[in-house]
Amino acid sequence: MRKILLVEDENTLREVYTLILSTEAYELHTAANGQEALAKCESITFDLILLDLMMPVLDGVGFLEEFAERNGGVHTKVIILSNLSSGHELDRALAAGARKNVLKANISPRQLLATVRYELET
Amino acid sequence: MATNAQTDTDQPTLRNEQPSTSLAENSRYRLLVESIQDYAIFLMDRDGYVSTWNKGAQKIKGYKAKEIIGRHFSSFYLPQDIKADKPKRELELATRFGRVEDEDWRVRKDGSRFWANVVITALRDENDELVGFAKVTRDLTERKQNEDELRSANDLLREQRQELTQLNTSKDEFISLASHQLRTPATGVKQFLGMLLEGFVGDLDPVQLEYIKKAYESNEHQIAIVNNLLQVAQMDAGKVVLRKAPVNIQKMIYEVTEEHADHFRQRHQSIALDMSEQPLYVPVDAEYFRMVLENLVDNASKYTPSKGHITVSAQAKGSTARISVKDTGVGIAEKDVARLFEKFTRIPNLLSESVGGSGLGLYWANKIIALHGGRLEVQSKTNKGTTFHIYVPLRQVDA
Prior knowledge:
heterodimer; A: Rossmann fold; 5 helices; B: alpha+beta; 4-stranded antiparallel beta sheet
């Protein structure tokens, strides 16, 4: 089973994305910030990480940079799932190894599932 | 002023060599100097003691002739200037260079200060021996006050301008932050409604489906407004940086109209693309240009009643590409066209009540096209339809 890590600090969003992603056969793990995500990555190798950017404790860019440092680069597929449509933070995240950016506010549940499926298959 | 002192000695010999006439002219000349009111003109001996006094001197400095003649000219200086030996220094300079000019504060008899322009000229006899000094003083207090007022008004303006710039930056940052924060709860609503709408939890009855649809649309509208606010804040903050590259414009038009296919269907509108087979490559920022196109196509659909028709065309005309979005919609009254690209403009029409908008879309689109070195134009007739033309240069130019 494909392993997905969802990193999202907003409880409601973490809940609804969990509900959506659970409708397909994935092994889903969640983290509420970059620090928790790093801890999960220590013991599990994920096929895909859905990463929010603006988070307390350790933000998305901080997670990517630390992840790259520990693993000699970002070899896991990472999709930015945030509400930042542009700007410095997003540029940094993409430069740090994220594959692409999906704007949360613009994507419906079915579109999210399609994006995840597409990323896992390619 | 220096020539005045020269005239004093030269004029009689130049005009007439007869000594008697010279005497008469001398006395008339004295009369002239004595009666001048706007300039303090007086003579001093070699050590700076006042020896003559005119009306102007009395008026400006407040001393009568008998009060000041015989006194040292340092009486007109501020105590700190006297302490710093300024009067003495000025006489030395006048002796060495023939004249010295100064603009500074001086003191009147009553102790009040005035802003003075002072010229001290050294007077020498035919053997080039120093015999004394002529001093001409003007009271420029009023001019100085005007200058000072102007300067402080200028400083104030500069400060206020700085404050405004700061306020504007804070405003942009605030809008940016607030919009990001607003997106989060709006996203939560969208996901839960989306799950209901997209059948994640089974079928809904027709009324439930209709209500959820309305809620979903409302949420979409809210997100669109937040997106527009963010785009405009980014634009106004000068943070839009175009990354231009040749883009196949027909392909982009095709994709954008495909995305809106559902809307056209729902509104029973027909769409036609009028484009040449030959691919038209235009140097634009693909992301921003696409958003402008989406904006125009979306508007065309929203403001065109059911069974209307929309045409999107793209042509090269000389060194310019023209992309047009034409509709058979409600149109825009002539008086409203000028306001169309202003911020927060919403033109009232038959459909505007039912069509949501932030009044920011066209403002933003117009600015983006201008950044491309192009222009956005509109032709419209009420109840006949509207056409938006985008003109962009075909060759890469830095706007």
